[in-house]
Automatic annotation (TrEMBL):
Highest rank taxon of the organism: Bacteria
InterPro entries assigned: LolA/LolB/LppX, OM_lipoprot_carrier_LolA-like, Sporulation_related
Positions with biased composition (Low complexity): 150-161
Positions with biased composition (Basic and acidic residues): 268-289
Protein's recorded name: Outer membrane lipoprotein-sorting protein
Span list, region Disordered: 135-161, 252-292
Amino acid sequence: MSVFARPAVRWAIPAVALVAVIGAAGAGKMLVANASSGLPERSPQQLLMDVAQARVDSLSGTIVQKSDLGLPKLPELDGTDLNAMVTGSHTAKVWYDGPQHARLSVQGTGVDESDAIRNGKDVWLYDSAKKSATHRTLSADSAKRPSAAPSVLPSTGPSSLSGGVTQLLTQLAPSTNIGTDGTAKVAGRKAYELVISPKQHDSRVEQIRIAIDGDKHIPLRVQIFARGSADPAFEAGFTSVSFAKPDASEFRFNPPAGTKVTEAKPGSSDHSKVAPKDRDHRQGKKGDEPQIVGTGWTSVVVAKGVDTTVPAGKTAEQKKASAAATKFLDSLPKVHGSWGSGRLVETKLFSVLITDDGRVLAGAVAPAQLYQAAAQTK
């Protein structure tokens, strides 16, 4: 696992959430900006078009992520405190100046931080707590490619993009309401606030609020509320943001004295080091494609043939992680029914059922709905 993999996991969550909730909007009311906001009226379709077509050349700012999912106590694995990763508040700073110049700095406890930096052909991953860094020099061909995902539909014209958004809204309208709570102010900027809510009241998600910048059209904040809760169970958003060009020095990295630097071989990656047979083992048996039981916001994903045993490990650190993971699994509540038996993870936003016969079921629903899905997919 790379030195940046651990803190980066928590920042993958808000990134995925932003993408997912933008795509989960249904048809709804016309948005009406507050008279004092100065923002013109925009329909949900128009806002989604704005986001899809948004282009930002430069950006810098501070992002704060907060979560209160009600998770059970998680184990420490490979020196990583999983509980700290997915609960509480975390702060990151971001700088972006085109696809070949980007930096994400995740703030840890005290003065600790982890950085991922792309500066042309140079890519650095740095962990101040471990005093370690990994440097990779990209090939000429790789350096030409963007460091992030491609822009949304870069070769699609406005007409076909409009048709795609209309189709999306039409398909999801049966299960989703979308409205507005006026306009919001995020990081000192005026923003539209979409309020997305499931029509299915047995979903554990009550609503999702997305603040979209009124000028640049990018999401500035996402909040996910559990049913019956006044405070968000998950929130990620900018507390400060600037669209001015960052100083070039932000992308230059010189390892501090005492840092152990590892030069990565071209083309190397954590995934590539895993033998094909091990990758197949981790991903489940071939042909065991996940099933979807139910529809909309109460859908349950069912994966079969999952190996939920914990590898024993060879090194002392691996054995310690294995013992912690086993202890965690054993601490989960035991449940049983006509569907079989297993262990349950229940949070404010979702539930997960791990059965003894190698199935994993998950959804934004109460455990009872997982049991029903388990009975249907024995």
